[in-house]
């Protein structure tokens, strides 16, 4: 039987751990080859100046990327990633920020060039399964939305010998998934956050996540992965991203264990290729139903 190979395609260091970190840890420990394709080094945003001290020998605009590259290296080792592949673009920042205009910003990249890079990676790694963001990019980050579209295009092109002939032998992955944050949970947050004096439209470390807007984008999950045995590993990998943590266990860290299991025990996905023909598909494994030929 061929080895199971999984490729995740996101734009920033931390998207892998804060997102489907439990799923990555699970498949890596079960012997699958798990590859993370990361479009940028997360060069945008403000971090604690002390964290940048070790990088003072670098030009100023490279320090944060270097720090976050180290953080991702740490997370990759904790999660057990087989490969970490950068596309080499610059973090575009949140919608409307001046970083959107940067010439190397990911969202300003030539789409065909990005797809060409992805096709080349797909043809050399030969993953049966690919995972990326949903069409709203989880919470609307422009880089998340941009990579969603490029991943779909690369999935369609990789098996076609006429497309990107310089990028290697054609190879068609079998399944494509989106990561899904549970909407029931989001609606619950939107209701309870005001009780804690927090504004659900200004959530997250930088106050740039609008939970109310996210609940308007409702994608039904098809696939639920039980990651509770790997939750400790996911937390450890998330801790690697020191510059992106708000400090402390957060308002949900102190909740009882049965609540924790409900909040953190599962990761959800929506299968988009092949399109589910059942109204309510219930997969429990990303590799379910695959033909394992090389
Ligand atoms: Zn991100």
Describe it.
This protein has 294 residues and is α/β, with parallel strands linked by helices. It has two domains: 5-182 and 221-273, Rossmann fold (3-Layer(aba) Sandwich), CATH 3.40.50.10320; 188-219, no CATH class. The protein has eleven helices and seven strands. The chain has helices spanning 15-18, 21-29, 49-52, 60-79, 111-125, 137-140, 142-157, 183-192, 211-215, 231-240, 257-264, and strands spanning 5-10, 33-40, 83-89, 129-132, 175-180, 223-226, 266-273. The protein has a seven-stranded mixed beta sheet, with helices on both faces. Helix 4 packs antiparallel against helix 10 (231-240) and helix 5 (111-125) crosses helix 7. The longest helix has 20 residues, at 60-79. The mean pLDDT is 92. The protein binds zinc ion. Residues 11-12, 15, 141, 144 line the site of zinc ion (ZN). Residues 11-12, 15, 141, 144 line the site of zinc ion.
Short description:
The chain has eleven helices and seven strands.
In the CATH scheme, the class of the largest domain would be Alpha Beta
CATH superfamily of the largest domain: LmbE-like
Shape: globular
Largest sheet: 7 strands, mixed
Helix-residue proportion: 25-40%
Tell me how many strands there are: 7
Mean pLDDT: 92
Q: Strand content of the residues, in percent? A: 5-15%
CATH topology of the largest domain: Rossmann fold
Instruction: Output the radius of gyration.
Output: 19 Å
């Amino acid at each position: 039987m061929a080895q199971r190979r999984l490729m995740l395609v996101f734009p920033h260091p931390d998207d892998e751990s804060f997102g489907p970190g439990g799923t990555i840890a699970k498949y890596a420990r079960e012997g699958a080859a798990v590859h993370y394709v990361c479009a940028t080094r997360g060069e945008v945003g403000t971090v604690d100046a002390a964290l940048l001290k070790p990088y003072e020998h670098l030009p100023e605009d490279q320090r944060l990327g270097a720090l976050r590259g180290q953080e991702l290296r740490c997370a990759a080792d904790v999660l057990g990633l087989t490969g970490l592949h950068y596309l080499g673009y610059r973090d575009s920042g949140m919608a409307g920020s001046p970083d959107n205009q940067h010439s190397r910003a990911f969202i300003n990249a030539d789409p065909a060039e990005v797809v060409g890079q992805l096709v080349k990676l797909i043809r050399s790694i030969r993953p049966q399964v690919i995972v990326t963001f949903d069409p709203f990019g989880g919470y609307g980050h422009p880089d998340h939305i941009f990579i969603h579209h490029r991943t779909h295009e690369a999935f369609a092109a990789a098996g076609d010998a006429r497309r990107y002939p310089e990028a290697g032998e054609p190879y068609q992955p079998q399944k494509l998934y989106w990561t899904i944050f549970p909407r029931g949970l989001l609606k619950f947050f939107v209701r309870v956050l005001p009780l804690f004096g927090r504004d659900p439209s200004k959530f997250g470390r930088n106050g740039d996540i609008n939970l109310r807007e996210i609940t308007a984008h409702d994608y039904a999950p098809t696939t639920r992965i039980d990651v509770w045995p790997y939750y400790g590993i996911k937390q450890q990998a998330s801790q690697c991203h020191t510059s992106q943590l708000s400090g402390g266990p957060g308002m949900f860290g102190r909740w009882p264990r049965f609540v924790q299991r409900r909040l953190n025990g599962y990761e959800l996905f929506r299968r988009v290729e092949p399109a589910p023909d059942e109204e309510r598909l219930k997969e429990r494994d990303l590799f379910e139903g695959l033909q394992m030929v090389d």
